[in-house]
Amino acid sequence: MYKKENGITLIILVITVMVLMVIAGVIIDSGLKSIKQAEQESLRTNMLLIQAAGKQYVENANFHIGTEEKSEEEKENIKNEDLKGTPTTDLPGGISLKEGEEAYSLSMDDMRDMGLSDEIVRTAEDYIIIYNIKNQSVDVIYKLGTIVNNEKVFSLSEMENK
């Protein structure tokens, strides 16, 4: 007589492993999406902090230029004194400046002077700040770009519009 053996058959074991693999795949995919979303939120937060600090410098420059007539040389001197960064024309992703906008590359020292945290300061070379003194507006560009809704974006204003 044959004795019925109790235990797990090979088929049940294979099915169990396959179910566990499917569950692991779903969890890993979800985890990767969460990590990417957290990285984008961190980048956006850094850009907002740079923008907020930059607005202070735009307002100071606008105040010093004032409503009195000043020569272009005087205005340039005020900009050089009040605005942080080094003028640049090297903009990524086909971004072009609008009337009244000026782009500046930020150094680590510039970011420290702006009162930004060391975490942001370490990535200074990745950012360009665009000042518009007349409109008292500031935009921030992340040179490396990031993907938002399957589209590569470089500026804070592009990020917020997606």
Can you offer a commentary on this structure?
With 162 residues, the protein is an alpha+beta fold. It has one domain (10-161). It contains five helices and five strands. It has helices spanning 10-65, 72-82, 108-113, 118-121, 156-161; strands at 86-87, 101-105, 127-132, 137-148, 151-155. Strands 1-2-3-4-5 form a five-stranded antiparallel sheet. The longest helix has 56 residues, at 10-65.
Mean pLDDT: 88
Q: Report the span from N to C terminus.
A: 73 Å
Q: Which structural category do the helix and sheet elements fall into? A: alpha+beta
Range of strand content: 15-25%
Number of strands: 5
The low-confidence parts are none
Number of domains: 1
Sequence of strands across the biggest β-sheet: 1-2-3-4-5
Question: Tags for this entry?
Answer:
162 residues, alpha+beta, 5-stranded antiparallel sheet, 5 strands, 19% strand, rod-shaped
